Amino acid sequence: MFSTYQLLNEETVLSYVKEKLPELATASHVSVKEIGDGNLNYVYRIKDEGTGQSIILKQAGDTARISDEFKLSPDRNRIETEALTLQGSFVSDLVPTIYFFDEVMNCCAMEDLGEFQIMRQALVEHKMFPQFADHITTFMTETLVRTSDVVMPHKDKKEQLKRFVNPELCEISEDLVFTEPYYNNFNRNEVTPGNEAFVEEHLYQNTELHRHVAKLKYTFLTKSESLIHGDMHTGSIFIKEGETKVIDPEFAFYGPMGYDVGNVVANLIFAWANGVVSQDDSFVDWIEKTLVEVVDQFKEKFVATWKNHAIEPFAVQNEAFVTTYLEDVLKDTAGMAGLEMNRRIVGLAKVKDITILEGEARLRAERLVMTLANQFILNASAYQTGDTYLKALHEVKEH
Ligand code: SR1
Ligand code: MG
After folding, report:
1. Domain that holds residue 49
2. What EC identifiers does the entry list (predicted)?
3. Contact criterion met (CB below 8 Å) for 119 and 235
4. pTM greater than 0.95 (yes/no)
5. Residue 140: is it exposed, middle or buried by C-beta count within 10 angstroms (0-12/13-18/19+)?
6. What is the pLDDT of residues 267-322, one digit of tens each?
7. If you take atom 5 of ligand 1, which residue's CA is the nearest one?
8. Which mutation among 172, 174, 343 tests ligand 1's pocket best, with the greatest number of atoms within 8 A of CB?
């Protein structure tokens, strides 16, 4: 019945999973609920109400859920499945388990992370997770260093790179992250009334900034460094006390490591800006501590992973190479963080940490984010430690 591709709905999904998973075919009451709240796909929770067991089924359509104007190959579901499988081979505790992938229907079934919460929502509620920095830095260093030329035989890496060519999803980022927020002639931008003059001066008319943004865009286009997640914001992270799972790597491709690390930094800063304007000092303190830990633990674990797994002769024999390499990754990180920050304020895909705020609080939070973003982009090589970020946050907060 499902031998050709069709977009499932709450009715047809039940017949589909019963065909795929015979154990569900005999269950007396199976419930289905579409629970997707992302921009691209359809996500169903399928639950055997008798046993209480459930799975998640994720299907890609041929347009983005957020808007038909994005025509996208449903092959992104294969990329997501293969990326999760590969990441799971390095850090099985930090990703959901995949049960099956169906290349005809462009869907995959995976572990239901029912008791977890999407991290962005948890941060909007000012919840704190002391182990997050440890978990996310393990995820990033393991997945980024171990898929790079430092660790993989170069020919194997090139083979893998082919499997992760992801032109349409990369194009979304090229447009939404690297281009549109810097010009006022893109109708997908939406500037909050009250911040128009700020955006005009600091983003749209800032040719010196544009020079740096162009350089970062070309880093994204050309630096096939590692298999990156490609969309590592806090909406792509499930979290609960003591556990973290990174989901949704459908934007994965061989790109610059700093894009992932920068996304994590940027999304912590959205939560920080929310905390600052809401005057929640203990939440702000936790975010600042976490940001410092993310940068510093990333550095430490990067070196350790490199030392444990490197096979590239220069990486093995030249002690100083790792330091030089890491400096570049951290420079990319700061620049990419700045780009993610500006685009979430001005561009199409905004973030709840900021949009939930009202009036002057939202305007101030946006200006805090854009001010820091431009500093990170313009002076990217200065951000080599957690403390350099902390200093920037404190200065802009006092200003
Ligand atoms: C059209 S997709 C908009 C955004 O949602 C995804 O999660 C990516 O961040 C993308 O930029
Ligand atoms: Mg996503």
Report:
1. 12-111
2. 2.7.1.100
3. yes
4. yes
5. buried
6. 999 999 999 999 999 999 999 999 999 999 999 999 999 999 999 999 999 999 99
7. 39
8. 172
